[in-house]
Write the structure tokens for this entry.
Amino acid sequence: MSLFNNKIEKKEEAQLVNSSNTIGKGTVIKGDLETYGNIRIEGKVYGNVKSKSKISLGEGSFVEGNIISQNAVVEGEVKGKVEISDNLILKPTAKIYGDIYTGKLIIETGAVFNGSCKMGDVKQMNTNNSSNGKPSLNGSENQKAKATATA
């Protein structure tokens, strides 16, 4: 591979990360979604949603599947694992039924979260899988919290 081709690939990837996608209200998707760029979901998704950038779930949205992203803002409902490497924000209308793995978490008053939460380096959690297949943390990074946040 030449240096020229590598520069082109990096430029194309940067353009993809800055792209935006929207799943509108009334839209139902059955299957996994994967994108380099931002994605906003207003409808329903029955499958996993993965982005290298940001996932926004609007009020009234529904995802039954895992969410994996760098950043996320949730105003809708999620039934599945939420794995966010940087910042996860749960707005007052958010409902999460599943485990959360994130770098940083903000739960606003009114949000509902039922599951376990592990905070720290999400990449490290994934590389230190325990024998039961669940991510685990080592030493002082283990900040396990069981929570139900309701107003």
Residues 39 and 122 are 21 Å apart (CA to CA). The chain has a mean pLDDT of 81. The chain has one domain: 19-147.
